[in-house]
């Protein structure tokens, strides 16, 4: 997922490094480098666990925020043979790449910034929204990252589900290698998760959703949040570690 950095946070001529990373030429390597290698070796939450997360929560009316290479949408099990899919990203490259990969579903594409209110998609909202490996790329605006969940909540249908995952810096186990790469990506500007923690994520989801659930796997937090059937904000949630005290996935 590419996100817009506020202009005031950049020096003249400086670019946000997270955006070129998602150019089409690099997306062709995304499955091998990020989905398969980094998930298993660095963050210790392999693709099988994340794919299972999709299979558990995806619906036939789905918004994918920051689709990356589209690996999970290409391999997950939709509840219907003809799902209604919308892809959203600030950058046109991943939208084109994933739309072509998922051409059998004829997905719609929208360019938008998750730090701003999302466009009007029409209809009652989406039954599911995936926000997978995006939050750690989002810069911290003055209002805090919880602003993103406010915008996503507004795109959900009553009773709809937001799910995803993110690499955290605080409150999750890191190995020396994962810690080094996390800091490297922060210095490069690809990651903006210096302050991201389990309590931060819990508080943000609790603020805007009726119910939520967190699971720590390696250095990753997987989450699910459900909108109230009547559209009101909620105050419920739970946090649990993966078997083995938050260690790697099997």
Verbal overview:
This protein is α/β, with parallel strands linked by helices and 250 residues long. It has 8 helices and 8 strands; from the N terminus they run H-H-H-E-H-E-H-E-E-H-E-H-H-E-E-E. It has helices at 24-27, 30-42, 47-57, 71-75, 92-101, 146-154, 176-188, 198-208, and strands at 61-65, 84-89, 108-111, 126-132, 156-167, 211-217, 220-226, 238-241. It has an 8-stranded mixed β-sheet, sandwiched between helices. Helix 6 runs parallel beside helix 8. The two termini are 27 Å apart. The model is unreliable at 1-19 and 235-250 (pLDDT under 50).
- Overall average pLDDT: 86
Task: Give the count of helical stretches.
Answer: 8
Rg of Cα set: 17 Å
Q: Structural class of the secondary elements?
A: alpha/beta
Number of strands: 8
**H/E element string?**
HHHEHEHEEHEHHEEE
Helix percent band:
25-40%
Categorize the overall geometry. Answer: globular
Strand line-up of the largest beta sheet: 3-2-1-4-5-7-6-8
Distance between the termini: 27 Å
Low-confidence stretches: 1-19, 235-250
Outline the biggest β-sheet.
Answer: 8 strands, mixed
Oligomer: single chain
Beta-strand share of residues: 15-25%
């Amino acid at each position: 997922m590419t996100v817009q950095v506020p202009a005031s946070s950049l020096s003249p001529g400086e670019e946000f490094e997270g955006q070129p990373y998602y150019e089409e030429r690099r997306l062709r390597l995304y499955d091998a480098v990020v989905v398969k290698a980094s998930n298993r070796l660095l963050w210790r939450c392999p693709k099988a666990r994340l794919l299972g997360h999709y299979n558990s929560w995806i619906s036939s009316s789905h918004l994918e925020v920051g689709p990356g290479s589209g690996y999970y949408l290409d391999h997950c099990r939709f509840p219907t043979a003809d799902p209604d899919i919308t892809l959203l990203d600030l950058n046109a490259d991943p939208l084109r790449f994933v739309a072509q990969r998922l051409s059998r579903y004829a997905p719609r594409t929208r360019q938008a910034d998750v730090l701003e209110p999302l466009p009007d998609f029409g209809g009652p909202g989406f039954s599911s929204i995936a926000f997978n490996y995006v939050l750690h790329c989002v810069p911290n605006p003055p209002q805090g990252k919880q602003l993103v969940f406010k915008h996503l909540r507004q795109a959900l249908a009553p009773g709809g589900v937001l799910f995803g995952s993110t690499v955290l810096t605080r409150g999750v186990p890191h190995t020396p290698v994962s810690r080094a790469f996390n800091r490297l990506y922060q210095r490069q500007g690809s990651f903006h998760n210096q302050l991201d923690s389990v309590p931060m994520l819990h508080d943000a989801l609790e603020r805007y959703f009726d119910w939520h659930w967190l699971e720590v796997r390696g250095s990753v937090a997987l989450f699910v949040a459900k909108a109230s059937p009547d559209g009101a904000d909620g105050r419920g949630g739970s946090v649990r570690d993966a078997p083995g005290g938050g260690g790697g996935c099997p």
